Amino acid sequence: MSRFLRFSYRDADLPPMSCKIGRRGRVLDLPLIAWLTLIWVLLWSTFNLANIITGVIVASAVCLAFPLPPVDLGLRLHPWGIIRLAGYLLYDMYTSGVKVTRQIFVGLPHRAAVIGVPLRCRSDLMLAAVAVAVSNVPGGSVIEVRRATATVFLHVLDADLPEELDAARRQVWRLEELTVRAFGTPDEIARVAEPPPSPQPEAGRLEP
Predict the structure, then answer these.
(1) CB-based contact 111:160 (threshold 8 Å)
(2) CA 78, 190, 45 angle in degrees (round to 5)?
(3) Which of 5, 23, 91, 188 is 20 to 30 A from 81 (CA-CA)?
(4) 101-114 mean pLDDT
(5) Which of 191, 185, 188, 175 is nearest to 42 (CA)?
(6) pLDDT (mean) for 181-204
(7) Please, which pLDDT band fits residue 45 given cuts at 50, 70 and 90?
(8) In angstroms, rounded to a whole number, what is the distance separating the alpha carbons of residues 153 and 165?
(9) End-to-end distance of the chain based on CA atoms, in angstroms?
(10) The predicted structure's pLDDT at residue 202
(11) What dihedral do alpha carbons 55, 61, 66, 69 form, nearest 10°?
(12) pLDDT of residue 4
């Protein structure tokens, strides 16, 4: 097995956090495999062993079929941060799902809104990761990401009171912090340790 699959911690000739399949095989970037697997699981919205294994297989096949030149993706794996992010997402998905279901069956009218939330992270990778994480939680979905201003715009179902809009923004900032602490670089982690930026006055629009 060691001849067929070699890891960078045993072979100094390989790039950090990578593995090589076969003696003349291609080198796989393990952080990229992990990232693509996470995207796969989030897209299916089902966290189970079968989905994880399928994600690893699909991610490996994509990397083997379309090899990329060695580049720094700005992706770092922080195990404790990943555990915290996964736990928060599972809890938030459950509680938000219960809340949305209750709103549907109660039948009372609710006012929706489109709000803009400025983020602290600046890399394209982290912006996309935060957008995927936010869209994965019932009750809100990202409709636009503005790269120039690092702002996400999302549709919020429950926006009867201004306090509910503030709560939606705080939830996005919390997901941003957890996502960056799970996959971000030291510079990005330092950014999310700072207070969130103030939203623009026109960043929220209520819908009747």
Answers:
(1) yes
(2) 45
(3) 5
(4) 75
(5) 175
(6) 80
(7) confident
(8) 12
(9) 62
(10) 47
(11) 70
(12) 59
* 177 within 8 A of 192, measured Cβ to Cβ: yes
Model's pTM, two decimal places?
A: 0.63
Strand partners, 28: 19
Give the HSE-up count for residue 171: Cα atoms under 13 Å, Cβ half-sphere: 26
- Taking only the tens place, the pLDDT of each residue in 132-144 is 888 888 777 888 8
Are 154 and 57 in contact by the 8 Å Cβ rule? The answer is no
In sequence order, what E strands does the chain have?
5-7, 18-21, 27-29, 112-118, 140-146, 151-156, 204-207
Answer whether 135's CB lies under 8 Å from 142's CB: yes
| Cα separation, 74 vs 124, whole angstroms | 9
Write phi, then psi, for 156 (nearest 5 degrees).
-110, 130
Phi-psi region of 63 (alpha: psi -120 to 50; beta: other; left: phi over 0): alpha
